[in-house]
Amino acid sequence: MKINSYKKFVAVWALVFIIMYYIIVPVIYSNESVRRYSIYSDDESGLSSMKASIENYKDPYVLKNIYTVHNIIATPDIIAGSDPKSNLLVSVGPGRAYTDSEVNGMLSFVKRGGNIIIGDNSENSIRMADKLSLSLFQERLWDEHYYGSNISWVYTKASLNNVTYRIVMPHPTAIINNNPSSVTLATSSNDSYIDVNGNGDIEAMDAIGPFNLVVVASYGSGKVVFVSDPGIFSNEVINVADNEKFLINLIYYLMPDGGNIIFDESTHVSDKYLVNVYKSIGMVAEIAVGENGYNMRTMFLGIAFFAVIYISTRIRTIATWVHRFNIHNYIGIKSIPEDMFQEKLVDITKSKIAQISLLSEDETKNLSIEKLLSLISDDTIKDFIANPHKKMNIEDMINIIEKLKEMKR
C-alpha cells in the first residue's frame, strides 16, 4: 500500500512538472495573446474592441443595450439547435477548415431563419462558401485606392440600408459570386487586382477588379454574410474610418430586435502559444542536459512522457484518483433551504449534462429544450428537466442525485 502511495506521489509530481513547464511557462514568457481573432484578446489581431462595441451598443429607438456577447468553444454546429431569432453566429478568421458536419449544422440554423457572419480570407470556410454558390480567391487583393500612406490597407465604400460607409480592409481577398439571389454590400475599385503570383506587381496573369468584398447570401429563411477580410473586425482597424459603424449596423440589419451575438472561438489556432510550448521544452532540456538542449527537445519530451505513462500504468489503484463527478461539489446541502433544493438540483442536472456532453456554460444556456432533452438517455432525468417545477419529495430528489452519479459520457 505504501509502495502504491509512493508511486502515486511520483506520478502526480511528474505530471505537475510537465504541466508547469509545457503549459504555464509558455504563457509566462509571452506577454502577447495566444489566440488570433479572439474576443478575449487585446492584441492587434484580437476582437476585444469589437466585443465592447457590441455590448455598449444602444438601440436608437428604445435607447438601451440589446445585445449580449457569448462564445462557442466546442464546435460551431452546436448552433443548429438554438433559437434562430435570438442568436447570431459570428466566425472571424477560423483557424482550421470547417468540416461537412459543422457546415451542415450551421446551415440548418440559417435555413430556419438564423443569420451568420463569416470573416475569412483563407480556404478554411470554403465548404460553407460552396454551399452558397460563392468562393474565395486564395491570393491577396491590392487596390490603388488605399488608406493614408499604408498601401496594403484597401479603402473602399460599403452600402447598407441606403447608408454609405467608408471602410478599411487590411488584408482582403475577393469573393467570387455565382449566387444570383445574393446582394453585394462592398466592392473594390476598378484599380484593384488579385496578385496571383504574389510578386506585388500588376501583370497580365493577375485578375483585374472590381471584386466583391462583402456579400450577403440568402439560404432558406436566413442569411450568411461573407466578409473577405477577418482583419476588419480586429482591434487594429475597428476604429479606423467607418469600420465600427458598418459592422455594428450590419449586426443590427441582421438582428434588429436584439439577442445573443455568439462568436465561434472553437477553431482559433494558438500559434504563438504552440511556439512558446516548443521553446519551453527546449529551455527545460537545456537546463537538464546543457547547451545542446535545444537539439534534444523531442528526446526530452519523449522520455518525460513515457516515464509518466510507465509510472501511471504500474499503479493498481489508479482508479481512485481519476476525476469523478461529485454531487456534493455542487450542492452545499446544509446551506440550502428545503424549498430551494429542487431548483438547485435542476441547475446541477444541467451542469452534469453539459459535463458529459463537453459543452460550455454558454452553449448549454443556448440549447433549446428539445436539444437538451435529446442529450439525456435516462427517462427519469429527462422528465425532471422537462418538468422542473413539478413538486418532488426528498426520495425522488435523492433518486435523481444517484442517477446523476451514474451518468457517464
Describe the protein.
With about 400 residues, the protein is an alpha/beta fold. About 40% of the residues lie in helices and about 20% in strands. The chain folds into three domains: about 1-30 and about 270-320, no CATH class; about 50-265, Rossmann fold; about 325-405, no CATH class. It contains twelve helices and 15 strands. Helix 1 runs antiparallel to helix 7 (about 295-315). Mean pLDDT is about 80; it is low at about 25-35, about 270-300 and about 315-335.
Summary keywords:
409 residues, alpha/beta, Rossmann fold, seven-stranded mixed β-sheet, three-stranded antiparallel β-sheet, 12 helices, 38% helix
Topology, pairings included?
Layout: H1 2-28, H2 48-56, E1 67-72, E2 87-92, H3 100-111, E3 115-119, H4 126-131, E4 134-136, E5 141-143, E6 146-147, E7 150-160, E8 163-169, E9 175-177, E10 183-187, E11 192-194, E12 207-208, E13 212-219, E14 222-227, H5 243-254, E15 259-264, H6 271-289, H7 297-313, H8 338-356, H9 361-366, H10 369-374, H11 379-386, H12 394-406
Parallel strand pairs: 1-15, 2-3, 2-15, 3-14
Antiparallel strand pairs: 4-9, 5-11, 6-7, 7-8, 10-13, 11-12, 13-14
- Describe the main β-sheet briefly: 7 strands, mixed
Overall geometry comes to elongated
Strand order of the largest sheet: 1-15-2-3-14-13-10
* pLDDT < 50 stretches: 26-34, 271-298, 315-335
CATH class of the largest domain: Alpha Beta
In what range is the share of β-strand residues?
15-25%
How widely separated are the two ends? 31 Å
Number of helices: 12
- Compressed to H and E, one letter per element, the order equals HHEEHEHEEEEEEEEEEEHEHHHHHHH
Q: Quickly give the CATH architecture of the largest domain.
A: 3-Layer(aba) Sandwich
CATH topology tier name of the largest domain? Rossmann fold
Number of domains: 3
Estimate the mean pLDDT confidence.
78
- Helix content, binned percent: 25-40%
Radius of gyration: 26 Å
Class by SSE composition: alpha/beta
- What is the total tally of β strands? 15
